[in-house]
Fold N-acetylglucosamine-1-phosphotransferase subunit gamma.
Amino acid sequence: GPAHLFRLAGKCFSFVESTYKYEFCPFHNVTQHEQTFRWNAYSGILGIWHEWEIDNNTFVGMWMREGDSCETKSRQTKVHLVCGKSNKLAYVSEPSTCVYSLTFETPLVCHPHSVLVYPTLTEALRRKWDEAEQLLYDELITDQGYKKILREIFEEAGLLKATEENEVEKQSKKITPEFETVEKCSKEYKQLSEEIKKLRVLLGQHGIAYKGNSGE
């Protein structure tokens, strides 16, 4: 992400609401402490630094996921980064059960160019993005296709975590041999068929019986 935001690393910012104290430690975690004398007062982790929230090709927030368990899922928190005169945790809410929303004010995001994704990427990934822009302009890909390429770029840059679906796709790509054209596939098939014939002959010469079906 943006290098200048790493100045926040190693620092923590707190916000007290009612009997709860919330603490946000950028690039680390978000915690909640119940400040009461109840015997079962809750203190726990609302999320651990996971990935960026990117909107309109701009860093708009941080996702803190995999917090303490909550019923059947883990607690998670979205931290919205907004322009402010000083670094402070300004607001906390729980829009849905075990999903928290924090607003963090900082002068580090006040300049609109300071949170652009493009400048933080490597030259190779910028080139990939430029090519995608050109394809979109030439109407060779749809808006959906363009967004898919951008997501892949952001994942490659480590700004977003790959979804389970994408991980499975990547793994299957490693396993499955791909052929760019039908001709290449046919050529490969021919070569393998020839190889199998030779191996059958070889087995026959050594008196080894070959058992197999056409599928094999």
Residues 3-106 form a domain with the Cation-dependent Mannose-6-phosphate Receptor; Chain A fold (CATH 2.70.130.10). The chain has a mean pLDDT of 87. The radius of gyration is 27 Å.
